[in-house]
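Dear colleague,

As promised, here are the two records you asked about, laid out in our usual form so they can be pasted straight into your sheet.

NAME FIELD: protein one
SEQUENCE, THEN STRUCTURE:
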Amino acid sequence: MAYVSKEVVKNAREALKVVNKKYNMKTSLRVDNHTALHCTIISGSIDFGFTSGDINHYWIDTDTRLSPIAKEYLEEVNKVLHAEHWDKSDIQSDYFHCAFYVYIRVGRWDKHYILSSKDAGQEE
């Protein structure tokens, strides 16, 4: 059964702080019903080409909407979110068994992503 522990969330938040500082980004991390880890990208210096929408974490590298720097950032975020993840699912037999579910989103439905003018990775 999928379950996100407090320790997983704590470790993911600490790792996301490092990635966000590198790219000058701001994210929100929350747990939904103890089974899903939701990462929302709130603001930053990377232009995603849209201000609100879901990211399919399985197909980041082939998403045509994203710039190379956006793909690079999202791959690092995805790696952080899956650091303590395991998946023993078998789709052919309709058997789903994983540590927890992961969702990445740019902006929210009521608060869109805010693009700042500062360049990605630029030091203050």
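NAME FIELD: protein two
SEQUENCE, THEN STRUCTURE:
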Amino acid sequence: MKKSITFSMSLFSAFLLWSMVEAHTQSTLKKVGDIAEDFELTDVISGDSIRLHDYRGSIVLLDFFFYW
């Protein structure tokens, strides 16, 4: 009986977590042609601020590179 309740609670928790992740993914998913959200970065070398909005109408390639 105790194993059955534990299994049921685990299954319910997994379903609840899956539905929350699915709902969040559906609301934040971008499609081709959607307008990207504006963001601002600081250039490490010059210290200048760079905004995505400054490049409107241009093709922008973002390369996220980092070391572990």
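A couple of things worth noting about protein two: Residues 2-55 form one domain. The longest helix spans residues 2-28.

Best,
R.
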